[in-house]
Amino acid sequence: MVAHDDKSDPILEEAMDWLLRLNAASQDSALACEFENWLAQSPEHRIAWQKARRTWRVMREVPPVYEHVWRREDPRGITIGSSRRVSSLRSRSHWGRRAVAASIGLAACVVIALNYPALSVRLQADYATGTAETRTVHLIDGTSVELAADSAIKIDMAKGERRVTLLAGEAFFDVTHDAARPFVVAAAGVDVIDLGTAFNVQLSATGTSVELSRGSVSVALPKKATNEMVLVPGEAVVVDRSTGAMQKSTIAQDDIAAWRDGKLFVNDVPIATVIEQLQRYHRAWITIPDRDLGQQKVTGLYDLRHPDRALRALVEPYGGTVRTVAPYVRLITRF
Predict the structure, then answer these.
(1) Could you tell me the domains of the chain?
(2) pLDDT by residue (tens digit) across 180-212?
(3) What CA–CA distances, in Å, run from 148 to 54, 121, 137, 186?
(4) What is the pTM (predicted TM-score) of this model?
(5) In the sheet that 285-287 helps form, which strands lie side by side, from edge to edge?
(6) Cα 210 to Cα 146: distance, rounded to the nearest angstrom
(7) Residue 105's pLDDT band (cuts 50, 70, 90)
């Protein structure tokens, strides 16, 4: 069993560095000789080299689980994200030809990508948060909005309607009711309409979820007028992004918007979806190449203040291992 801690393995980091250098200068005999000397230093060096090669093969194929947030296109069709580094992660040939150049920008690009919502989202947002950052916004009508980490909202207080668009992440709304001016939260094609309430809305790669703490809300898909559901306190609904299907469930009051207390509560959701939520609280790039592991469904409560511990608690019961390849890379595997 590999020992687990929050620190990176210095020998493994050296092995990854050698792999980058050798890929970029495969014909350099002096470099090859220097590498052979490094490899012969100890059995640990040879083991680290084998791990590095295996990890490299996996990382060349798999994008980060949270890529949909920071890799987007602006209205001109230009991809926005972590620039050449993002493209390199998706191109085998680029890795081979320009590995060292890409590695130089790895830490900086990942930090930028994971500390802020996508640039296209930020350009639209009135308020936004970064990695592991939360914020409370007070609207002019008395409504308060608590933004979770890596979240963004756009506000439109028109005369006939108060509308907040959740552009990314998650937010808890405590709404000041006004019968003459409905309060609507728009989230990826889903409208959550206030009927005098406090509720949480979350976006993910696969859908929109709503949890109701107080009052009542109507959850509707404007493009599908027949799809509408009214929630009462202690109820939650998940709306599938691709099909529009709604799945209702019950939830304990203490578990609604548990992120406000530094916790993440999930009920029968895939590991990959939980990792997507943990990614908003982790400054490292997280990837889970094992699709079967990612689709395992879990129920549990995880500590957002210690995301590495949460990752381990999430995957280890299913045979997963969290590998710290570098300070800003976490690779989740079964080997």
Answers:
(1) 133-255 (2.60.120.1440), 262-335 (3.55.50.30)
(2) 899 999 999 999 998 879 999 999 989 999 999
(3) 35, 15, 11, 16
(4) 0.69
(5) 285-287, 329-333, 321-326
(6) 14
(7) very low
Tell me the pLDDT band of 76, cut-offs 50, 70 and 90.
Answer: very low
Contact 12, 45 (CB under 8 A): no
The beta strands (E) that lie in 107-257 are given as 127-128, 135-138, 144-147, 152-157, 162-168, 170-174, 183-187, 190-194, 198-203, 207-214, 217-221, 224-231, 235-240, 246-250
Q: What separation in angstroms does the CA of 5 have from each of 8, 237, 273, 325? A: 8, 36, 23, 12
Cα(64)–Cα(84) distance, integer angstroms: 15
Helix (H) or strand (E) holding 12: helix 10-24
Dihedral sign for Cα 302, 308, 313, 316, please. Answer: positive
State the pLDDT at residue 83. Answer: 36
Reading the block at residue 166, the tokens are 């959740």
What are the structure tokens assigned to 36, written together? 């052979």
pLDDT(174) > 90? yes
Residue 49 burial (C-beta neighbours within 10 Å; 0-12, 13-18, 19+): buried
Cα dist from 171 to 36, 152, 229, 244, 256, whole Å: 53, 9, 20, 21, 11
Question: Any idea what the Cα angle at residue 182 is, between residues 177 and 188, rounded to 5°?
Answer: 115
Residues paired with 301 in a beta bridge: 265
pLDDT computed for residue 85 by the predictor: 37
Q: Is 89 helix (H, G, I), strand (E, B) or coil?
A: helix
Which residues lie closer than 8 Å to 3 by C-beta, 6 or more apart? none
Residue 335 has pLDDT above 80, yes or no: no
φ and ψ at residue 150, rounded to 5 degrees: 45, 50
Residues linked to residue 322 through DSSP beta bridges, in sequence order: 332
Give the Cα separation of 49 and 43 in Å (integer): 10
Q: Is the pLDDT of residue 268 over 50?
A: yes
- Of 201 and 96, which is predicted with more confidence? 201
